[in-house]
Amino acid sequence: MNRFITLVFFMLLISCSDSNVMQPFDQSQKPAEVNVKGYSKPDVLQLRLNGAPVSINGNTSYTNKIETKLEFVLDEGETDRLGIYNTETGLEIAHYNLTYDNINDYKTLNFFNLPGIFLQASAVKPQVNLGKVGFEFIFPNLGEYSGTSLTGVKGVLKRENGAILAEFDPIGKKDFTPVKIYSFFSSTAPVYLELYKPGTDIPYNGSEMIRVKIKQDMGANLIVLQEKMVNGVFTVVGEIDVADYL
Predict the structure, then answer these.
(1) Other C-beta atoms within 10 Å of 45: how many?
(2) What is the mean pLDDT of each run of 10 residues along the chain (246 residues)?
(3) Residue 27: per-residue pLDDT
(4) What is the rounded radius of gyration, in angstroms, for the C-alpha atoms of the chain?
(5) Is residue 1 part of a domain?
(6) d(CA 65, CA 245)
(7) Exposed, middle or buried, 137 (CB in 10 Å: 0-12/13-18/19+)?
(8) What is the DSSP letter of 177?
(9) Where does the record locate the signal sequence feature (predicted)?
């Protein structure tokens, strides 16, 4: 009798094992989580996941600080589309294709939507003591007009008389540089950022000095550098200060 019971149990075990082998799950799945930390001013935005508006605190359109956590399930081989839209014009500003394989790259999604630029980066206003000036830089469209393959440049911040205030090496495309602080000296005198290939004194594009006029404000300055073509001439500007929006 014991042998019979043992034999039946053994046969059931084999049967279950064969069943699992012959009938696997149709698709693998994994939970997905995207922490959105954005900012938009003055535009009103809407997030859409696979075309469906995302509600944040009961609202499907939002401005200023935009923060939410998206939680959903991704099937292997599936692509979910997260889009950011201007609600007034209906135009898509940016989108992200979320997949089973890349979802870990989007655990946190940072962005700033400001006049004339969409910046995918995190920014925290640094503490700068009274009477001091702090600068951070980012260069998101490096190479758009220059054609350079560089991922960063060296920046040397100078007074009009050529005195060096701070050096930033490298200034990259994805993250702000660490803050550099110096003593405030004028509310009217500009400062200039000279741009070179990393670790050199060679202009990063062409042979002429690339010199960007920067307005300095007491306290923190988080400057977005941008390549532009003005009347057919290549130039770099630093007109956007993210600190004004924080």
Answers:
(1) 20
(2) 45 44 59 94 96 96 95 93 96 96 94 91 92 96 96 97 96 96 92 97 95 94 96 95 89
(3) 64
(4) 26
(5) no
(6) 10
(7) buried
(8) P
(9) 1-21
Cβ 80 vs Cβ 32: under 8 Å: yes
Q: How far apart are the C-alpha atoms of 187 and 171, rounded to whole Å?
A: 25
In whole angstroms, give the CA distance from residue 71 to residue 192. Answer: 45
Asked if the structure places residue 163 within a domain, the reply is: yes
Position 28 scores a pLDDT of 87
Same domain, 78 and 147: no
Give pLDDT, residue 85. 98
Query: CA triplet 226, 82, 118: central angle to 5 degrees?
Result: 15
Residues 6+ apart with CB under 8 A from 124: 246
Nearest to 45 by CA among 96, 101, 83, 1: 83
- Rounded CA gap, 6 and 27, in Å? 35
Strand partners, 240: 224
Select from 78, 2, 66, 6 the least CA-distant residue to 37: 66
pTM recorded for the entire structure? 0.79
Calpha distance 142→4 (Å, rounded): 76
- Report if residue 52 sits inside a domain: yes
Q: Please indicate, yes or no, whether residues 147 and 111 belong to a single structural domain of this protein.
A: no
Residue 4 maps to a domain: no
CA atoms within 13 A on the CB side of 25: 6
Same domain? 142 vs 227: yes
Query: Which ranges of the chain would DSSP assign to H, the alpha helix?
Result: 2-22
> In which domain, by residue range, is 33 found?
29-119
Does one domain contain both 108 and 143?
A: no
